[in-house]
Amino acid sequence: MTATTTSMSTDKIISNFPLLRFGSLLGVHSILLIFVALFLPRSSFLLSDLPPQASSRDRPQHEFLRPITAEPQLTLVWLCIGAIIVQASWASRLKYETVSVKLQLFGEDEEARVKRTMESSKERLNSIFDTVRSTFACSIFFHVILILFGAPFTECFFRTYFLALLLSVLSIYPSVYTLGSPDFLSSESRALVHRMHWQRLFAELSPRSPYERLLVFPAIGSLLGCWIGVFPIALDWDRPWQAWPLTPAYGAIVGNIVGWWSSLTYDTIIFLADVDKASIAEKAHAENKSVSSKKKKVGSKQKEAKTL
């Protein structure tokens, strides 16, 4: 009975998922994130002269890249600031959509609606505080992981931390703001269900609804993009853009955008498949109905013939 109810709820969520609206939202936020990656770090040097190129002076790099590669640590700071703004906007919109879908599925009486309206501002502040706290806590965890994987510890300590903060903002911030952070100390059934929800999404990697995929796919994409972005640093080219941690940071941003659009593409394929299944089922039902009506006509004619 529970599995049937879950399947029905998932089917309703898929049918109610606004593909066109989320396509436009992802387009806007992707453009904003690209702007953050390519143009926001350049604002540091609009009013000052760029420092000289530190490496490969015999092969000058493109003028567009000079403001980005001149001060990698400052570039990471700008990336973190811009990513926080973009992810905050995206997470708030995603949470609004998930709450709206739950209300459409399960309904809401007048008393609950009034109570939710009165507590919405307080709940929003608590969600923001919880999200910021969890994001910074996960940034410390990512920092330790990066160091264990060989990132510079003493020479580029702050660069490594800003990369960890960027990873946390891209992968953790939307999920915590939308779902709420799991409580590992509580033994209540509600907290247990919430922990199992997080475990299903990020340990088992088993999202069941379009909204869950919009959380899981970008998080995986950010981590994979950061990991892939490490490989160009090992190349013996001695180019300014190979400075730590520019390529992992930009790889994480690209991976996040790819995760967004992979999720939407996956949901579009499922939606079209469901539409095709529904049309096939409708045709089969119409054919069965016509066959049964023909059989009834034949049976009535045979009865008339017997009576004659």
UniProtKB/TrEMBL annotation:
Pfam families: PIG-F. It is a multi-pass membrane protein. The chain crosses the membrane at residues 20-40, 74-92, 134-154, 160-180, 214-235. GO terms for cellular component: endoplasmic reticulum membrane. The keyword Methyltransferase does not apply. The keyword Transmembrane helix applies. InterPro entries: GPI_biosynthesis_protein_Pig-F. It comes from Pyrrhoderma noxium. GO terms for biological process: GPI anchor biosynthetic process. Residues 283-308 are annotated as: Disordered. Its main location: endoplasmic reticulum. This is Phosphatidylinositol-glycan biosynthesis class f. Keywords: Endoplasmic reticulum, GPI-anchor biosynthesis, Membrane, Transmembrane, Transmembrane helix. It is found in: Endoplasmic reticulum membrane. It comes from the Eukaryota. Pathway: Glycolipid biosynthesis; glycosylphosphatidylinositol-anchor biosynthesis.
